[in-house]
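BUG: 3D viewer hangs when loading the predicted structure for this chain

Environment: internal workstation, default settings.
Expected: structure renders.
Actual: progress bar stalls at 90%.

Input used:
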Amino acid sequence: MESLEYEMAFLVRRLEAARRRFHYGLERAHYLLLILLERNDRQSVGALAEQVNLDASTVTRQVAAMKSAGLVDKHDNPDDRRGGFVTITEAGRDAAAEVRERRLERIGQAFVKWSDEDRRVYADLIARHNDSLRDMLNED
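Structure tokens produced before the viewer hung:
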């Protein structure tokens, strides 16, 4: 556990340093919301908030900024006047694709000396870790 804690502490630090150094053209939160909408369009703010482990008011503010930028649209829910649905626009899809391309290039540089098998195994382990973190954060 000590080795995991040590490596994760530096991984988080280096990921934050990379985020500050490399500008991808979208805020990280906006990119995450866009990729969620790419995979499953027409989601409520509450559903999006749950997936990114944020409160709905924070995501509401992010969606408002994204709507102003033309990245998403917000639609009323005829069954619930308080809520609505968020959908991705073509501009949102284009922006997400552009950011993804830049991110893939940077990630590729970091893993250039890794074999395809090592990259696949690492991706599987990260997915497993993300699932564990999600489950831990969603515990009552």
